[in-house]
Amino acid sequence: MIDQTQVETLYDCDVIDNKGEKIGSVKRVWLEDGTGTPMWAEVHTGLFGMKESFVPIQQGQVAGGAITVPVAKEQVKDAPSVHTSGNHMSDEEQEALCRHYGLIPKAKTGEHDRLDGRRGRGDAAEVTLSEEKLDVGTRKVEEGRVRLVKHTVTEQRNVTVPVTHEEVRVVREPAQGGTGRAFADEQAEVTLHREEPVVRKHTEAVERVRLEKDAVTEQKSVKGEVRKERVEVERDDEPRGRR
């Protein structure tokens, strides 16, 4: 459980849900009035950190600069809005949050103070350092179009076809009786045939062609300039060159 001794380490920590997903970063911590126990973290969520949501941190674990909480990121997105007045959270507002997260609210102890910044250091002076982060995403753009175009081409085909033709040959054999028409002019004939190639054409489907899209993932590097604030210590009793 998170206690008062860890409050100093909570600011700007990443808040991780029970599935290991980042919810956002801590901007304010709300303490229980009277005990000072850290109860809620006001977390900046959304794509550009423009939304503020309340996350229970009583049962959270702090490690490696992050807070892991036993709630889901979806619960945080749907958490009720809390309209605090005078940097205080009322018991009714806390109970609404507890009901949403399925927690058992503590006995009413009055309002809950917001701890804004680090406190408990007497008259210590401090500044807040900020830096820009790159929010990198993707968007879909049209790269080009591909179409199938069908057209007709003519080509020559050489095909060998076997053909048959008839030829005459003389066959002599002994006559079987009878004398025929002796000493008279006579002739006989046969008709010869041959085959010749005939070309006909018909159309049949031989192949179907279609276009399909596949999604291919590749790594692209992006660059961007970000600003970062740094702090230097200056003393009035020392020259500026000796910082």
From TrEMBL:
Gene Ontology biological-process entries: photosynthesis, light reaction
Gene Ontology CC annotations of this record = plasma membrane light-harvesting complex
Renumbered residue ranges of the record's region Disordered: 214-243
Where is the DUF2382 domain positioned along the sequence?
128-233
One Pfam family linked to the record: DUF2382
Q: Where is the PRC-barrel domain?
A: 8-75
- Its domain of life? Bacteria
Identification of the protein by name: Uncharacterized protein (TIGR02271 family)
